[in-house]
């Protein structure tokens, strides 16, 4: 046997600091983002904020037009700092605080079921999913085994596992897992790591060995300590408890991230930010680092350079976040113009997959951006995900969303003869006449129950 050195090229996907920061910033709404930025300013000397005088009445500002949203590639050293604005100087119309308070009780279950309704799954699979989601603990793990669910429902274990696998790759990835290993493997898979990659192998085969340290893992895996360190940094960035950031709230103050408005007969999108402060690079430290630091210890120099890189990365991530927000907002507005011009009945089907294909983004990225974001429209402040729903295709080839069908259904019941209310089967026929789409009776029943409308017997009694 001959021992010799050999070069080997192995493709490997690693979470760069830029990608980690972007994944952290994308799901944040405006209020969460402002709180996070203030924390970063306190820990990074290269970042500073300039607070503006807050008005007596709350106001909303536009930071930049749609054409100005872009990704800065580098810092302009000639000016000494890069600014990131949260608001302009020009005053705008006053906004009532009550208009910014939205009743919200969205739990993890609500969020998962919303995503599931945008996928092409059967009614039976949706009921299985409801059973699974209803048995998640506070961490996001499934409290009962698939075998127990099979016994309780009388369905094959394979069917239960198929649905559970769909839920595992919704956002947050890893939810409905049975244990930590399965949760982390799902997240690695969603990030593109293959089964033969080092992070995947460590989680799958040596998860319990991680506390023993890098050297022990290096011997098991026959890899260098540096490679093991990189793999462990990826694993440490994963979320062991997918449901950690979900909690129910009764009321929350909403600051819209987008605005849809009509100007000169054309619908436009604006990315909004709150007029709180201006974030920028500290000119003193950037100029200090630009000069050669004679007599300064190397450790201090490395610390300053690292903080500078982190500050630049944060500014780029913020620009990318707002660029992505604009792209998704523009795609939604282009798709749903008739909704604003003619009313809720003209809301068209729009799923995460359709939006991802139109914006050339990954489906999980679209889900992160749409979640917990709000848009200011002529019809009021609405959740961005309001405009996403599954639907049907008319005989004419035109799509109609499930929400539009529910609006038609509500109108039919409101106008029916109170002494002779319509049955669900009769309502299905009426909807088919009006909309040209074939809807099953059980679907009408489901929509009626979602609208909290009583059955024909209860309506007739009233």
Description of the structure:
With 462 residues, the chain is an alpha+beta fold. The protein folds into three domains: 17-99 and 252-364, no CATH class; 108-236, RNA polymerase sigma-54 factor, core-binding domain (Arc Repressor Mutant, subunit A); 391-461, Orthogonal Bundle (Arc Repressor Mutant, subunit A), CATH 1.10.10.60. Helices cover 46% and strands 11% of the residues. It contains 19 helices and twelve strands. The protein has helices at 17-25, 30-43, 108-117, 123-133, 146-153, 157-168, 180-190, 198-206, 214-221, 225-236, 283-290, 298-335, 337-342, 352-359, 363-370, 402-415, 424-435, 441-450, 456-461; strands at residues 47-51, 61-64, 83-85, 101-103, 251-253, 258-263, 266-273, 277-281, 374-377, 380-383, 391-393, 399-401. Strands 2-7-6-9-10 form a five-stranded mixed sheet, covered by helices on one side. A three-stranded antiparallel sheet has the order 1-8-3. A two-stranded antiparallel sheet has the order 4-5. A hairpin with a 2-residue loop joins β6 and β7 (266-273). α8 (198-206) crosses α10. The radius of gyration is 26 Å and the shape is flat. Mean pLDDT is 76; it is low at 54-105.
What strand order characterises the main sheet?
A: 2-7-6-9-10
Low-confidence stretches: 54-105
Alpha-beta classification: alpha+beta
Q: In one word, what is the shape?
A: flat
How many whole angstroms does the radius of gyration measure?
A: 26 Å
Query: For the report, how would you describe the main beta sheet?
Result: 5 strands, mixed
Q: Helical element count?
A: 19
Total domain count: 3
**What portion of the residues fall into strands of 2 or more residues?**
5-15%
Helix content: 40-55%
Terminal CA distance reads 90 Å
Number of strands: 12
Mean pLDDT: 76
């Amino acid at each position: 046997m001959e021992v010799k050195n050999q070069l080997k090229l192995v493709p490997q996907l690693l979470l760069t600091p830029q990608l980690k920061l972007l994944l952290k910033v994308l799901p944040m709404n405006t209020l969460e983002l402002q709180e996070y930025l203030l924390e970063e300013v306190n820990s990074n000397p290269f970042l500073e904020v300039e607070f503006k005088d807050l008005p007596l009445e709350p106001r909303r500002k536009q930071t930049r037009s749609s054409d100005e949203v872009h990704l800065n590639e580098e810092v302009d050293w000639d000016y000494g700092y890069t600014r990131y604005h949260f608001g302009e100087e020009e005053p705008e119309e006053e906004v009532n605080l009550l208009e910014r308070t939205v009743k919200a009780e969205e739990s993890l279950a609500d969020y998962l079921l919303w995503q599931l309704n945008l996928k092409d799954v059967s009614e039976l699979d949706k009921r299985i999913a409801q059973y699974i989601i209803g048995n998640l603990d506070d961490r996001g793990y499934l409290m009962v085994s698939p075998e127990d669910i099979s016994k309780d429902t009388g369905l094959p274990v394979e069917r239960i596992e198929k649905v559970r696998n769909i839920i595992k790759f919704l956002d947050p990835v890893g939810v409905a897992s049975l244990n930590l290993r399965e949760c982390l493997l799902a997240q690695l898979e969603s990030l593109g790591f293959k089964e033969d990659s080092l992070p995947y192998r460590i989680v799958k085969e040596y998860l319990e060995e991680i506390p023993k340290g890098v050297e022990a893992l290096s011997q098991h895996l026959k890899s260098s300590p540096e490679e093991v360190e990189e793999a462990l940094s990826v694993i440490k960035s994963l979320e062991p408890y997918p449901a950690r950031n979900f909690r129910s709230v009764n009321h929350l103050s909403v600051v819209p991230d987008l605005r849809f408005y009509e100007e000169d007969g054309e619908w436009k999108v604006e990315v909004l930010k709150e007029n709180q402060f201006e974030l920028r690079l500290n000119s003193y430290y950037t100029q200090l680092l630009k000069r050669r630091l004679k007599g300064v210890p190397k450790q201090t120099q490395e610390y300053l350079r690292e903080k500078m890189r982190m500050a630049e990365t944060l500014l780029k991530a913020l620009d990318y976040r707002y660029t992505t927000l604009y792209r998704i907002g523009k795609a939604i507005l282009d798709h749903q113009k008739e909704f604003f011009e003619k009313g809720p009945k003209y809301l068209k089907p729009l799923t995460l997959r359709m939006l991802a294909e139109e914006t050339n983004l990954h489906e999980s990225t679209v889900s992160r951006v749409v979640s917990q974001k709000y848009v200011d429209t002529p019809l009021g402040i609405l959740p961005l995900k309001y405009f996403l729903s599954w639907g049907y295709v008319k005989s004419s080839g035109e799509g109609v969303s499930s929400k539009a069908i529910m609006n038609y259904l509500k109108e039919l019941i409101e106008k029916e003869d109170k002494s002779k209310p319509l049955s669900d089967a009769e309502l299905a026929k009426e909807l088919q006449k009006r909309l040209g789409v074939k809807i099953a009776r059980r679907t009408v029943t489901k929509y009626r129950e979602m609208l909290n409308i009583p059955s024909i017997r209860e309506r007739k009694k009233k």
